Amino acid sequence: MKKNMNILIVEKSDEDFSAMKEALSGHMVIHAKTGTEARLKYGNQGFDFVVINMDIKGVAGLEFIKQIQEAEKRKNVRDRTSFLVTGEDAEAIQEECSQIDNLQFLPRPFTALEFKKKVASIQRTSNFKNENIRKVSEGEYLITEGGSKNQEMYWVLSGEFIITKMNKEEKNIIIGHVKQGELVGEMSFLDSLPRSASVKATEDSEVLVIPHKKFMDVLDSQPRWFRSLMTTLSHRLRDADQRIARKFVKEEN
Fold this sequence. Notes:
Blueprint (H helix, E strand, L loop, with lengths): L5 E5 L3 H10 L4 E5 L2 H11 L3 E5 L7 H14 L7 E6 L2 H8 L5 E5 L4 H14 L7 E4 L4 E3 L9 E6 L1 E7 L5 E8 L3 E2 L1 H6 L6 E4 L3 E6 L1 H9 L3 H29 L1
Parallel strand pairs: 1-2, 1-3, 3-4, 4-5
Antiparallel strand pairs: 6-13, 7-12, 8-11, 8-13, 9-10, 9-12
């Protein structure tokens, strides 16, 4: 981590703020307890790094982050602000976070050591030359079942993931694994339907993000029957996967 950073921590708990401030010893750390206070303080001086507790009511953290990033793009800022989002609703938050650059998620509760490691990881990966490479921490969800906002496909560069599906008792059942060199997320990527299963990292991993829009732009240059072919193949693959998943879930019940 570079020295003498200006860091804004949006955290309601004084105790949690003190613990994070101690972990960031040597840096200028500013505290904000509400979203409004955070916006005012950011507007007054700007920060290299921002930590936001998404569990604070009314914080609108992701909207705040997007506003900062849009402003930085307009101003052609070279060294962009890095963000760390924390919260208890891991699956819901992570799906939204996956759409935003220079941002990582740390589920609550977390230890001081976990916080320091995550901050160090963000500093290593922020402003990375290849914007399409994403690091996924152990235990982090790359894809969440039923999600529809994120339609990217991923190529696993390193690490490993498990594919899980929810049963009637709302328990995640493992139905498959994804290893280095394999693709994941291809069905929603092709047919734009909601995610059929969740994908979770079993170790610290790295993936290449294949943007959905770029693929659709390529399809637009092809004959119309080609897109129909891709959609048909995806539907058949989805049906086959669902039959296999139902078998796994039934055996676990």
